[in-house]
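INTERNAL AUDIT FORM
Audit reference: QA-55
Scope: verify that the stored structure record matches its stored sequence.
Auditor: D.O.
Record contents follow.
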Amino acid sequence: MTVRYGISAGRDLRGGPETPSDVVLQGLRRAYSQGRKIHYVLPALIDEWRGREGNRPTLPGILDQWNEITWADHSLVITTHREKEPNDRSAIDALANECSRLAKTPTIYWLQSEQIAELYDHIRESGVVIDSRDGKAKGYFIGVGAALAALADGDYPMYAALATHDCDIKTPLLRLVAEVAYPLVGHEAKRYDVSKANYLRVCNGELKGRVTRNFFKPFISAILAHHDHPMFRFLQNIEYPLSGEVGFSREIAENLELAQGYGLETGQNLRMFRYQGRITQPWCGVYDHHHQTNGALGNMVGEITDILLAALVRLQKVDVTELSKLHEAYIDRAVDFVAEYHLLAAQNGLRFNEDGERGVIVNDFAPVLQQRIEAWRHGEVTVDAVRNSRMPSWAEIFEKAPHAKELLARAAIKVR
């Protein structure tokens, strides 16, 4: 176990067992029975229920595995394709019917429902600025709000912590869910404020996680070479910065302001630095997710870049005309990182295409970075624009929008 800049991180890179230890499971069951509950939010695309474009559906298997999880509650927040089926909730009804067989039925929200639209209208009318675009961030936002709105007798918080879990995972997830939850509620001696999953992404014997390896980490290194700041050193020490499996104490969850789109995880990392709480990164094993095309990964790189550059310009008062130097610095460091990851792959018996990795850096990610830097230099993107695209905190919403909790409860789809 290493501790750097207030972050503790497991360093064992072995895959390990697919199930958590008895100590972890016993701690989670004890915590749940004593009222220290954790609520998982599962933001999902309807395609993860039905399957699409050669990807088999992953959500049915995930729900089956939740039957084994008696020590956590969960909300399932579904996004459908507005442009294809704006008013068709037949798939949602089918999913709700399927969930009725589960031992612990989830609360389901459909982001395209009239009730969610009514909630957003109420929030705006209360004077809170909110972006209503669809996507994972909106699903996470609604799920967190619903859990925070749930109170037990005497107004004692029903949930001591909240966590999110991606729904595109193909491999067994019990260990991943448990390892994230345990530091938040299960350990008697010390409880953390943030628990962020650290794992290795592998598919068919090949090392994955290209945006983390080939962009995020080398770009942070490039920024630090020119602009040393504690926040970027903090980001450098997050083992898997783009993992979607992360949990927060209730207090932090209430005050989270979520970034939109592919910047969700990066924005969460920045908020983690701001709170400077007790942060741990449990090693959760080896997992496989659905994989994106290089074009989709390029979009991800663009949105991550804007969030990081906004932080850099705001914190370091960097003139946007100076950002160009980061492009060359990124390429140099990214190419250097390739050799390090080749070694990591070799040590773990994984395939690694070094030429292909360099090609992704030079042909896919570097041009996107250059494009975003030019957008900043020409004033097409600003710090204020990035800040104003964030989702407001639920603490602010509950304070200013008196009917938000009632509308959240009304939006829940009953599982029969």
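Auditor finding: record pair retrieved intact. The mean pLDDT is 86.
Action required: none
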